[in-house]
Design a protein that fits this description.
Layout: E1 7-13, E2 33-35, E3 38-39, H1 40-50, E4 55-60, H2 64-70, E5 78-83, H3 92-100, E6 106-111, E7 114-116, H4 118-124, E8 131-136, E9 147-151, E10 154-159, E11 169-177, H5 180-192, H6 204-212, E12 218-221, E13 227-229, H7 233-241, H8 243-247
Parallel strand pairs: 1-4, 1-6, 4-5, 8-12
Antiparallel strand pairs: 2-3, 6-11, 7-13, 8-11, 9-10, 9-11
Helix pairs in contact: 5-6
Length: about 250
């Protein structure tokens, strides 16, 4: 019998959520309620536990004290806080780098504004590739989608600026790094953060750098209906109206 891999989930939740103002005036985006008495963060933690992962790092920044207080109720999980003091002047490359440099295990990076069905994470961590990105496919892509170009079971490009007609998928903001993949993303980010011009870029720029060097980034495909992200008020309204399809397997941890 193969022993289960030691694994951690890193949740990137440092941002200010300005596009959701005034809802985020007094609360971080990850603590907005999505329905059923659950916040975004609670939904994520419940589904992480369902996947059998009990070690979690949450990268915080804006209103960190509220997140720190919220996770005190998750006594059965080992949750650590990685505070990003540069949250107001940086993008998530810095948050990801800060957490990864403290992580020894294989890990999954998850955007802090994603709501997803449990099988998305549990399916992803079955991958035995070094780097695996979760993607979905749909008929049309808009300018705010993190678009991808795939082929031969690999991702070759990832960027919001990819022309919609060239894209054939979208990154949902969940990526699994294991074994050599952990080392490669760590080393790549370490070099990138030394350039102050990279303070305000997405961590996926590091993944593109890796792909440009020819290293394979594989993908795990989910349905467009398996997840949702919360960027705008309309996103939050949609999730609240359809929370039952994401929350069907939620348990109290």
């Amino acid at each position: 019998m193969v022993e289960p891999e030691i694994m951690r989930v890193i949740i990137l939740a440092a941002g200010m959520g300005e596009r959701l103002y005034p809802l985020t005036k007094n609360s971080p985006k990850s603590l907005l309620e999505v329905g059923g008495g659950k916040t975004v963060l609670e939904s994520q933690l419940d589904h992480i536990a369902l996947a059998g992962i009990m070690d979690v790092t949450i990268v915080t920044g804006y209103k960190t004290e509220q997140i720190e207080a919220k996770v005190l109720g998750y006594e059965d999980m080992s949750i650590s806080i990685c505070y990003n003091p540069f949250f107001a002047t940086s993008n998530n490359l810095i948050s990801a780098w800060m957490a990864i440099r403290q992580t020894n295990e294989n890990f999954v990076l998850v955007n802090g504004d994603d709501v997803f069905k449990p099988h998305v994470l549990s399916g992803l961590i079955e991958s035995r590739n070094d780097i695996t990105m979760v993607i979905d496919r749909k008929e049309n892509y808009d300018e705010d989608d993190m678009k991808v170009v795939t082929g031969e079971n690999r991702v070759f490009r990832v960027n919001k600026k990819i022309p919609s007609e060239d894209a054939n998928g979208e990154s949902i903001g969940m990526i699994f790094f294991r074994n050599k993949g952990h080392m490669i993303i760590s080393e790549t980010m370490e070099k990138m953060v030394r350039n102050k011009e990279n303070m305000n870029i997405f961590y996926l720029a590091a993944l593109q750098e890796i792909m440009d060097r020819g290293y394979p980034v594989n993908y795990f495909e989910c349905s467009e209906d398996d997840w949702a992200e919360i960027d705008f008020h309309s996103d939050l309204s949609f999730i609240r109206q359809h929370i039952e399809k994401y929350a069907a397997d939620i348990v109290n941890v």
